[in-house]
Amino acid sequence: VSKIKKKTYTLCKNITDADHVTLNNKPIANVDKFNYLGAKIIMDGDCNHGINTRISKANQSFGMLNSIWKSSILSKSTKI
After folding, report:
1. For an engineered disulfide with 32, which of 5, 43, 64, 76 has Cβ 3.0 to 4.6 Å away?
2. Is residue 4 part of a domain?
3. What pTM value is reported for the model?
4. Which domain holds residue 29?
């Protein structure tokens, strides 16, 4: 069971102390990066970090399955 998490952030360049964004009279935190649907959103808009993270996760997952791919006990149809 997971709790529903809802957080609101602002992602602004050159924000000053005088610039406050509020919602229902509560300040909204300004951040330089956050995760959204599994992707890291970064202030500078560079997507290379996200791509590298996904490649790394895919390599890790493939590595975890390596013993299955090399197994002679399992049939090819089971592996696929």
Report:
1. 43
2. no
3. 0.47
4. 9-69
